[in-house]
Amino acid sequence: MRIARVYAIAKKEIIQIRRDPLSMAMAFLLPLILLFIFGFAITMDIKNLKTVVCDLDKSEVSRRFASDLSASGYFIIVDPSVDYQQIERIIDSGAAKIAIAIPRGFSENIRLGKPAQIQALIDGSDANTATIAAGYLSAASDMFSAKLSPRRSAPAVDPRVRVWYNEDLKSRNFIIPGLIAVIMSVIAALLTSLTIAREWERGTMEQLITTPLKTSELIIGKLIPYFLIGFIDMLVAVSVTVFVFGVELKGSLVLLLVVSAVFLFGVLSLGILVSIMTKSQLPASQIALVMTFLPAFLLSGFMISIINMPYVLQLITRIVPARYFVTIIKGIFLKGSGLSLVWFDLTLLALFGAVVFAAANMKLKKKIA
Amino acid sequence: MSGNGVTVKVEQLTRMFGKFTAVDHIDLEVGKGEIFGFLGPNGAGKSTTIKMLCGLLTPTSGGGYVGGLDIMRQSEEIKKIIGYMSQRFSLYDDLTVEQNIDFFSGIYSVPRSKAQGRKDWALSMAGLMDRRGALTKTLPTGVKQRLALGCAILHEPPILFLDEPTSGVDPISRRNFWNLIYMMAEGGATVFVTTHYMEEAEYCDRLALIYRGKIIAEGSPKTLKQSAMTKEVLEVEMENPVEAMEVLFTSGFDPSIFGSALHVTVDDGMVAEPAIRKALADAGMTPLRIEKIAPSLEDVFVNLIEVS
Q: Domains in chain B and their CATH numbers?
């Protein structure tokens, strides 16, 4: 291993990246754009659900119920007095997701202390939203009942729930840190997937092969610039998460950066390996994209919890590096996890990197055929 | 091991690509300080041979030595003592002249104390002293190739492999390039060069002709012309050489066009000349001139290929 040769490769690569606007955009702009798009688009919180009310009771109490719903912020009443017959058409047309019908005698029943029923019709075509809406609605009804008669009847079990780590239950708090892991998987692998293939395509590889350059020197020289880029991206992404999305970083920034470095080494090496195997930029970038994006998105626990997956899929997640990174980065952001909690996942992440790096070194041959 | 004064030696070197034999059991010896020309038409196996010598390809069978090192087992050692330049692709187009030189200087581990001197040498050799900051892609092909040669020999290798180095370059640039090759050889370097330009072959100390993977002749340009050419060449100058060629073809001769004249390879010029005149006269044509000429290397080569 000669430092001079590694340095020559790294320096050349940096010059080439800086001279190519497309590479620069992919290295620095794309991760930021993805972070903003996904960060604002993906949310599992539901707000401002369009709601219509068919108030047949037309009492002061029924109006108060409706206005309490809208005051919660989860429901927005687009029409407070529709005919019952209109409801089906309104839900069909998508003008509202929820229709609430308050029957005649609603206020009378409340006054008499009898159960007062309301009917809620929810558009279930988006099951997730429907479930959450139903939950909000029953919570809102419970609060309304409690307000009417605080001491009327004590429930048998009264859970006092306190949520740890993400007290506000804002989905943004756990989505954005995981999102960093997904985006960095894709960007890192994509960047390096092009580098060795480019040398083959342009024919410069042939020249390199006839020099004393060692394959390990070439790989390390190629990794260094992209590692620096990845690290800068990482710093920017964490800053945006904290300062733009307002997610609090509870754990250590240093630990987060150490883990990021280990993670980057693994996915950058994966990109290099793909580049070595395909020898051609287009298939290399496509394979790198599919190999990183889908597993990182679906199998990392970023959005879909791993424990609820079928056992076979759970096993497959074990070879997805983003899985370990997602776990660690969520832990550091939300729980303030320290090294004592993350060391196991960190070790597996390092192992992944070592295996892929070794494979890349074995697969790169100084021969043209 | 190679004998004294021999830098490249191969025995029964063979390379197959699937069922196709690109290089077929060839033997070669190149002496130290020689300019060795490897001639042949496209696809004859020139590049494949040079690539095996430089460690780009592994031979299917046979073997050889470069600078006393085994091409089968010591290809990485060989890479320290050779410079390789191919017709295309050796430089980074998106780097400047100077960045390319610095890059290869680093790759060849040119010592820091020598690097600046070698860079100036390469710049002046390529005539790029004033354009060191220019992007390589903006250079004309001829200049690019001189720069590529400069980059390939920054580490002053004793053995140079040049694979069609002047392909696609104008005649003047080609001549300039060959002056550089002479310069290297005078400095003691061995130069192994492939080409399909016949006039370039004349510049070499020794030649080997390869055709369909086999070496069909070997020697200095002079001896090749004398010994390999048992036949004679008549130059027939015509007003309409293409039509005349057809006429001679149908009369059983073997003409080929050289500019406005035809070269007809015959066993005996004294016998053939009247026959050619008659064949042309029968077709209503009169040759401007018929003359026995010394065969050029191209005649030799065309003849050798037909014989094999």
A: 6-225 (3.40.50.300), 229-307 (3.30.70.270)
